[in-house]
Write a structure and sequence with these properties.
The complex is a heterotrimer of chains A (111), B (99) and C (131).
Chain A (H helix, E strand, L loop, with lengths): L2 E4 L2 E4 L14 H10 L6 H17 L5 H12 L6 H7 L4 H8 L10
Antiparallel strand pairs in A: 1-2
Chain B lengths: L1 E4 L8 H8 L5 E4 L14 H7 L4 E5 H6 L10 E4 L1 H10 L3 E4 L1
Parallel strand pairs in B: 1-2, 1-5, 2-3, 3-4
Chain C lengths: L15 E6 L8 H12 L5 E6 L35 E5 H6 L12 E3 L1 H9 L3 E4 L1
Parallel strand pairs in C: 1-2, 1-5, 2-3, 3-4
Chain lengths: 111, 99, 131
Amino acid sequence: MPMVDIAGKEYEVDEEGYLVDLSQWNEDVAKYMAVEEKVDLTESHWEVVNFLREYYAEYQIAPAVRVLTKAIGKKLGPDKGNNKYLYELFPYGPAKQACKIAGLPKPTGCI
Amino acid sequence: MLHIVNKSATERGSLDSCLAMAKSGSAVLLIEDAVYAATTGSTAAAKIQAAAAGLKVYALGPDLAARGMTGRVLDGVNVVDYSGFVDLVAEHKACQSWL
Amino acid sequence: MSDMDMEDDGAGVVKKFMFLNRKAPHGTVYALEGLEVVLITAAFDQDVSMVFTDDGVYQLLKGIDSKGIEVKDFSKTYRALEGYDIEKLYVDQASMDARGLTEDDLIVDVTVLYVSEMANLMDEQDVVISF
């Protein structure tokens, strides 16, 4: 599988650029993935990225976007738990982009 | 002889086949789904306890842990780790895996 | 996760799906594959029941630590099912008894059914998928 150099360290990624070993994730990796996805990381982005990492730690999966939206609404309030908000942050899909930045594997059922 | 069983005793007959053929004094190592047989409350537990009288019965610790069974191991069953597995293979002149 | 379900218009036909799980969690890949299929199916808003019988009841045990065999602990994922609106989880009483297990040993809330009740539940289904 391909290797990428991030801040002087080598990381293995899959053919679509997802980090292979999620235990290797750190902020440098997130910033690199964000540049790849043309996302300018703000506090609001980090909030979603960190939420995804917590979700993964608890359930060992990346959530479906519908589930993510609902769970974020529950934790961060309805103004954030909706598709409009999440797609504004991650225009090419919160599933695809936020998971990649969070260092999670390619989501189950993501086509 | 070291006999190695890796199939669940509540799904397949490998443990029965093994116990029928294992001579007194030989060793039986349960790995993968076979470890369930070495836990309290399983219908296979009586077979293992009966066998433990004439055989040395071992179960692989990491496989027990991965199945949430660490706290349920039957008395008379010896839990081994991977290096214990290697030692068992080295100590016996032959191994039979009941696939 | 799927970005597709943005397009959900809710106009599809809803069928009763049963996912029947009969294998222990790590010895084969059936349990993990079955769980992934259920999570994908959840995107289609069907009426899903998950049934655990025979060695399948072992999938739901608490206290699993799979680091030693270097595989993912997907038992935690069963707790995510509620968030996917999959709330019909059934286990077979006789299978639990034969393995010395009770509801307290399981990582999620389930309904325990006798085999005759399970037979009725299976009979009501439009689709049964077995793992």
